[in-house]
# Entry
Amino acid sequence: MYRFLATPRWLGYAALTLAAATVMVLLGLWQLDRYHQRAEINARISAGTAATPVPLTSVVGAPSGAAGTVGPAPAEHSEWTRVTVTGRFDPAHEILVRGRTVEGAVGFEVLTPLVLPDGTAVLVDRGWVRPAAAGALTTPDVPAAPDGSVTVSGRLVPAESRGGRPQQVAGHAEIRRITPTEIAPGLPYAIFDAYVSADQPAPGLVAVPAEKQNALQNAGYVLQWWLFAAMTIYGFGYLARREARGPRPDNLLDDEDDDAHAEDDDTRAEAAEQLHDTPR
# Structure
């Protein structure tokens, strides 16, 4: 009944179906892996809300190179950990991070190096500030960093990708993304390859909330790709079963009716021809 499946045409259909279904299953597995990665990040962010801060150097290696270099990147499981670090702010190398949205408004995040007693430094996101009323090209009113030795507590945030070197705009340095490897060459000390987002900004600044990943979107893609794979295999099975059954009975009746109508038409045509040929 299903011997036709061994024909070259149906073997080609089967190979194409299996290849398509396999690709869809693999895409689903990739999205499943992305879902787990994002879910783990969200879990760390949630856990860090109530966690007790730990010393910065206990979760990420300190830089040991020359000035203008960065230290090792934090391990993935250490990202978003609440840390504490003590040092002195260096406002001379403060950088504004433009295009940052907090509370529905686009403004700047204030990134100030905190120099540790050993001479290295870590970038501290002191908080978010609204742009100046005169426009984005005007320097916003940024509260000054505190003098003397300060202890900062906040989340250890991994470096952002695709960052660039700071640019001078209206007398101050600006960047779009926080990438320590791009910022370090302009600094007189080595820095950590991550930054600290302060929990308690100074008056005039707003704390930058940790942005969670959209893991549910990846879960939806998993279901989508696997549903497509199932539909592809089902479609092949449906067509094969239909081929094995042959024409439906109602189709056969339709064919017989068509033949009968054709015979009646032929009979009428012959009768008309005979009538026409009969002498009058």
In short: DSSP finds four helices and nine strands in the chain. The helical segments are 8-50, 180-183, 215-245, 249-277. Residues 217 and 264 are 65 Å apart (CA to CA). The mean pLDDT is 84.
